[in-house]
Amino acid sequence: MNIRTNILLRAYAAFGLIILFAVAVVAKMLHVQVVQGDKYRAMADSLSTKYAEVEASRGNIYSIDGSLLATSVPEYDIRMDLMAGGIEDNDVFYSKVDSLAAKLSNYFKDKSESEYSRALRNARQDKQRYFLVKRNISYQDLKALKKFPIFNLGRYKGGMIAVQENKRILPFRDLAYRTIGYYNMKSNTTVGLEGAYGDYINGESGKRLVQRIAGGVWMPVNDDAEIAPKAGADIISTIDVNMQDLAQNALKKQLIKSAADFGCVLVMEVKTGEIKAIANFTKVGEDEYKETYNYAIAQSAEPGSTFKLASYMVAMDDGKFGVNDIMDTEGGNYKLYRHTIRDHENEGVIPMKVAFERSSNVAIVKQIYKNYKDNPDEFTSKLHDLHLGEKLGLQISGEGTPLIKTTKSKSWSGLTLPQMAYGYELKMTPIQILTLYNAVANNGKMIAPLFVHEIRRLGNTVELFKARVIKDKICSDNTLNLLKEMLEGVVEEGTASTINNPLYKIAGKTGTAQVADGANGYKGKRKYQASFCGYFPADNPKYSMIVVVQNPTKGSYYAASVAGPVFREVADVVFGSDLEMDNQSKIPQLVGNTRMPEVKGKYKKSTQNVYKAFGVKALLASNNQEELGIDTNSGIAYKEVKMNKGLVPNVEGMGLKDALYVLGNSGLSPVVKGKGEVKTQSLIAGTPIYKGTRILIELE
């Protein structure tokens, strides 16, 4: 083979290899583009763009009267695309950047004009597309920023990017804080109504297309969500804002006075089971209390004497004793198994009704032990029949587990039965005790407490909640009536007589229980839990309430002195504010020769409205008809103030505030002497007024 042929063969081989390589490359390209195209296109898209979740606006939480307890408000992070279309030209950007910096500095007052200008210029040099300008601004701030230089060019030209986040706020701050609930970032848990109804409140997230830019930052491609989020539903709670505020203030005041560790108050509507107020406070510093734990729901502890209601109910319903049965309290000291049951005072020989009213431990222990010692399960099974050993199944999580022992319990001993009789060796939460007392007030029907009245979406009812009946009848009518009498007797002449109110009846029971001191048990430092549970008005109950104060260290530790005043304060205001309850109280009826109620000078219509609301009507035989100016047609007493322009008005009989208002509007300059209501005035009513004339009014 000659040299020429050899060279050609080599050239052809090299060319063929090149052709084969080219064909392989083309084939691979086709395979990648056609066969694997979808895979790699998705991979490429995922590296540069993706869909990010857009948080939905969470639903609101309202009180039963429509007050806003929790809501979401938008907050914005303001970022800037320094390479936006409207400012690509350096002349445009640098001619306006100082003006923008000045506006930002003057508006937020957090940085100087030069600091803002330098930051924006540096971001421009680095060609940043997602530069952070300001975090967490309000919608009003956002509207103001849109009018600033450069930003007023618009989203795509001016480069302003507003990233929205929703912030949860509580308009009433710490009002029912634990019950409303919140999200705990550390434990990734949500408590209260926020957690229990999160599926409704949270709504459904939307989606927005975002693009990855330099630095691994994801920037929204446009302002609008590709899939709009669905706002959450609204929760209508059972909380009454006024009662809640009242309960919190009364409780906190008593906790500070007693220097207690913690306390709680629950107010429940008898017929519906709706919780109108729930307050919990823990001591966090000297005279400082905050709501950190929901004791009313979660704190399962020995209730003490408030549990005697259950012991009396079971034994009386079983016919073991009656209210008039006599019991010897043995000087207030009863020894059993080398353990002494003590009374606060030596009650002597007393009927069981008096023993309940005076909270004798010895009397109920002797009765329960005598009647059930041979068959303790007879007693404990009745307690379980009352569902006292079961959770209530509340609408919010965290309910404490009750403990009602039986003879099968590992810790059962010879002392367990007598100890249970007066509220020891068993555990219940305040809301579980309240549910039992509420059943007595509700004529024997036991219902589960409610925290949520309704769920609404866009104004339409999604779900409406009504009371769930736990037990239709907790005891016989005869036993129920006797229990009601004894509960009223506790307040009228028993351990809680200090909270008796002559205007309406309160029924309830005190409880002063010794609390175990950790590992030292009852032999360590003595601590006490003071509680009062009851309902009002006793003759037609509308609300039940429990007050618990743990470890009062100042003053008395007895329930009547510690928990009782809180109950009385809340009940007084609630009763006085509720015309429906107030009108049911006994109002003295006016008869002939009875003076009408004194009336300060007012306008006729206002006086008539007040008298009508209170059901007070004038009597023709009233001996002060002429003095008051009786309108015999409508039966309303009034004394109308007639204002004659330019003449001295008659302000005698008025209070100081009304008198000053009337005299000031008449052009007179009043001088005041004394206090009370106006007795005399120096200028005669009906005489001409000269502007600036002084008038002396004497009050008495």
UniProtKB/TrEMBL annotation:
The yes or no answer to whether the keyword Transmembrane is present is yes
| Cell compartments where the protein resides | Membrane
Entry keyword set? Carboxypeptidase, Hydrolase, Membrane, Protease, Transmembrane, Transmembrane helix
Q: Reply yes or no: does the keyword Zinc apply.
A: no
Residue intervals of the PASTA domain: 642-700
A single Pfam family it belongs to is PBP_dimer
Q: InterPro entries recorded for this chain?
A: Beta-lactam/transpept (IPR050515), Beta-lactam/transpept-like (IPR012338), PASTA_dom (IPR005543), PBP_dimer (IPR005311), PBP_dimer_sf (IPR036138), PCN-bd_Tpept (IPR001460)
Can you tell me where the transmembrane regions are?
Answer: 7-27
CDD domains linked to this entry: PASTA_Pbp2x-like_2
Q: Gene3D superfamilies, per this entry?
A: 3.30.450.330, DD-peptidase/beta-lactamase superfamily, Penicillin-binding protein 2a (Domain 2)
This chain's protein is named: Penicillin-binding protein
